[in-house]
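User: Can you help me understand a structure? I only have the sequence.
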Amino acid sequence: MQSQNEDTGDLAGGSSQFNGQLFHLLMEAPGPIALLRGRDGLCDVHNPQFQKLWGGPNQLHQPMRIAWPHQEANGVFEMVEGVFDTGRPFHQHNYASIADWNDDGKAEQRYFDLVYSPYRNESGVIVGVIIMGLDVTAKTNAHQQLAERQLLFKDITDAAGTALWTVDTKGNIIFVNQTWLDWTGRPFKAHLGRGWIDFVVPEDRERVISSFIRDINHKSQFHVDFRVLRKDKSLQWVAATGKPRYTINGDFAGYVGSCMDITERKKTEQLLRDSEERFRNIADSAPVLIWMTGTDKQITFVNKSWTEFAGVNQLVGNIGHLHDDLLHPDDQAMIVNGYIQAFDTRQEFYLEYRMRNRNDKYRWIGMKGIPRIGPDGTFEGYIGSGMDITEMKEHELIKNDFIGMASHELKTPITSIKAYVQLLLTIYSKKSDDEFLLRSLNTVNKQINKLTRLITDLLDVSKMESGRLSLCSFEFDLHDLIKETVDEVQHTATQHDILYTTVGPLAVYADRDRIAQVITNFLTNAIKYSPDSDRVDVSVSVDDQAVTVGVRDYGIGINPEEQAKVFNRFYRVEGRNEQTFSGFGIGLYVAAEIVRRHGGNVWVESEKGNGSVFYFTLPLYKDLTQN
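Assistant: Let's start by predicting it. Here is the structure, written out as C-alpha cells:
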C-alpha cells in the first residue's frame, strides 16, 4: 500500500502534496474509487471496492488494457480515453459486477453508477482520470421489479377480455389496453387524449361526453353505456365504468376504468322488451283479468281488462292483486288467508269472491294463481287470471236449489214406495210360491235403494255447495261400523264376496252416518266397476296418527291421467263398457268431501285393466281397549 502512496504522490506533483488522511479516506470509501494516469490508464491507486468491481490481480502500475483485459467488452477503455482527450466527464449507469462484497465468502451481483472525471495537475493539465462509483443495487433492483410489474400489468391488461383505460386529471386518455385496440383496429396513439371519442358512434357522443365531463368535474364514479364502431364497421355496445384515483397524498390523479362488451346483453334486453310488449298487448286484449306479483306479494302488472272492470288505474294492496277497497267485507278474511297461505307455500290456488266493479256493484270473480319459476328454478312471484262468474254462480244457485227441492220432494214418494215394497216382501216371502213375484219385488227393492242413494248424494251435493252440510261427530268404533256396512252391502251384492280383514277396535271421532256413507260408496263403486270379478277386499291399517281404510276391486281399473279426476263432481271414468254403468258421477265427490271435512284424505291407486284400490284416512282418536 506504500507503493500506492509514492506513485500517487508523483501523480499529484509530489508526495508532500498528497494528504495522508485523504488517502486513507479513499481506501475506506464504501464505493469503488481508482486513479488512472495518462491516456493508457496506468493505475496509480484504487481502493478494495474498485478491485472487486473490475477484478483481476496486479492492477497497479499497469496500463488498463493490460491490467483488466476482460473489461474490453464493457467499453470502459474508450470512456477513459475519451475523458482524457476531451476533459469532459463520462457517466456509466447500472454497471453490473459479481464479487464477494461483504468478505463473507458469498459472491453476489451488484450495480453501480460510475463517473469518469478528468484529473488535473496544479497547472490544470489533464494527467489522468478519476473513476468513482456509487452502489445503486437497491435502486436498480427496484427499477427492475417495477419494470417486471409493468410488464406483468401490460400482459394482464392485454389478455383481459375487457377494455381497460386511465385518464389524467384533465380527462385525457393516457392508457388503453390491447382489447380496446383490437375492438377499434387502430394504434395506441390514435386513442390518446380525446382520440377515443372518434370511435363512439355519432348518435351517442354528446351524451357520453356530457356524462364524462360532469362526473370528472365532480370526481364521482362514471357509468355510461354507448356504442363503439369496430374495425369491421359493426356496432358494439359497451358499458363504461370509471373510478377516480388519488395519490398517496390524497391528490386527485385522474380516473381508471373499464369498458365491457354488453352487446349480447343489449340484444337480450331488447328481446325481453319486445316479449314484454307482446305479452302486454296480448294480456290487454284478453277478456279475462290478468295479474302478476313479485316475490314480496306486491302487484307488478294488471291488464287493461282489470283496470276497466275496477275503474282504477292500478291495483296496489298489501297482499298483491287483492285490493282491500274492492273486496266484499264478508270475503276479505277468507281471501287474504287463502292467498297468503298459497303464496307462502308456493302452491296453485283458486278463489271465488266478490269484488266491486266500476259501477259500485259486487260481482263474483273466479281467480286462479300459479307460481312463476325462473329459468334457474328460483321463485319470481305469481301470475294469474280471473273471470266474472256472477252469472255462473246465479245459475249454480238456481240449480242447487232445484236439486235440493227436487231431491227432497222425491224422497217422500220413494220412502212410501219402499215401505210398500218391504211390506209386500214380508207378506209374500212366506206365503207365495210365485218366484217371479218375489224376484220382481226384490229387484224393485234394490232399484229403490239405488235411487235412494242417488237422491241422498244429490241432496248432499246441494248442501255442500250452499255450505249447509253439517257433521254430528262423536266417538265410536270404526271396526264395528265397517263390519255393519259390509254386511248391509253384501246382502245386495249377490255376485261378489266382500272380504274384510279386521284389526280389532279402532276409536275415531267422526260423524258415524257420514263415514258409513263413505264406506258404502266405496263398496258399491268397487262392485259396479268390476262386473267380471267376484271379489272385493276391505283392509284397515293404523299408525300413530290415523287409520287408513282401503277398498280393493279387481275390475276395469283407471288410467293414471284420470286418477286425479275421479273425485271431481260429475266425473265418470271412460272405458269400454262405461255406457252400461249407471250413476251421475257424484258419489266419490260426496265421499271425498265428507272425508276432507273430517280432516282426512282420499286417493286411489290403480292400473288400467288391473283393478283399483280406493283409500281414505281418519284421525285416530284412541284405542278402545284402554277403556
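Now, to help you interpret it: DSSP finds 17 helices and 22 strands in the chain. The two ends are 124 Å apart (CA to CA). Let me know which part you'd like to focus on.
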